Amino acid sequence: MYDWLNALPKAELHMHLEGSLEPELLFALAERNKIALPWADVETLRSAYAFNNLQEFLDLYYQGADVLRTEQDFYDLTWAYLQRCKAQNVIHTEPFFDPQTHTDRGIPFEVVLRGIDQALKDGRQQLGISSGLILSFLRHLSEDEAQKTLDMALPFRDAFIAVGLDSSEKGHPPSKFQRVFDRARSEGFVAVAHAGEEGPPEYIWEALDLLKIKRIDHGVRAIEDERLMQRIIDEQIPLTVCPLSNTKLCVFDHMSQHNILDMLERGVKVTVNSDDPAYFGGYVTENFHALHQHLGMTQDQARRLAQNSLDARLAG
Ligand SMILES: Nc1ncnc2[nH]cnc12
Ligand SMILES: [Zn+2]
Predict the structure, then answer these.
(1) Does residue 286 have its Cβ closer than 6 Å to ligand 1?
(2) What is the ipTM, given to two decimal places?
(3) Catalytic residue among 197, 198, 206, 286
(4) Could you report the per-residue pLDDT of 82-138, keeping only the tens digit for each?
(5) Which residues contact 270 (CB under 8 A, 6 or more apart)?
(6) Which residue's C-alpha comes closest to atom 4 of ligand 1?
(7) Is residue 197 annotated as part of the catalytic site, yes or no?
(8) pTM summary value
(9) How far is the CA of 227 from the centre of ligand 1 (A)?
(10) Which ligand is nearest to the CA of 17?
(11) Which of 223, 219, 289 is nearest to 10 (CA)?
(12) Confidence bin at 315 (pLDDT 50/70/90)
């Protein structure tokens, strides 16, 4: 089944480039940039990948991203991810990047963007993988800071297709970012947002009604609100679900409790994604495979999930 799932043509719609930083590359970049790391070796770092919630993961994720300093680093990071896409027959990808994680450490916006953009272009030409980049605002920071990030991004508007919202969800509702999303949409960008990962269904309502998002990232807690479920089904609003992430971050205690197939059978447009593959134990195929192993996902269900991912693309 793994090989069959791997060969299935699919799109990935929820993946943070900084979350594809494998420990081996993290150590290589630290050496290249002469940065001392708090971990003795790759195995010690990998053994720290045990999380009780989203925040515990984010603390390590932001720490890891500190080794990314030069345009070449961002190129290498993105290129390594695209090679994984090629190996798993991901024919289209819409990755996130978090500019504030880098600009707040003094790395110029254009250094980050140029490295990522060049790799995505090479991915199109050399690997045949189409893509659309999503600029994500960090929700634990202020709306003012998100506005400044949008200002920095506008001169490079052709390099990305959408804006997103990620980082610590609880206590940072979508309503906090209504004005910056209004502005981004008026500048021609599509909007997406993480909502209903750890946060309540109300955050999903806000993301839909206030931020006017076209796709919900995670959204698994929608199942707690029947009226919301009905809306998501009626309007066929896609959910970018990340099964291995949800179990690694204890959103579900075990994969056998995950609700993605229940949602699929109810007519929700759910898709399968890896979120932060270097930290959560696998790329897209591993996520599909876990659904087969623990939830008995059939080939027909896998085909429908893959088709949903192709249908829910924002970019061609
Ligand atoms: N799963 C996740 N939720 C929120 N923010 C993130 N940033 C990277 N991964 C994330
Ligand atoms: Zn995410």
Answers:
(1) no
(2) 0.97
(3) 197
(4) 999 999 999 999 999 999 999 999 999 999 999 999 999 999 999 999 999 999 999
(5) 238, 239, 241, 260, 263, 264, 305, 308
(6) 167
(7) yes
(8) 0.98
(9) 26
(10) 1
(11) 289
(12) confident
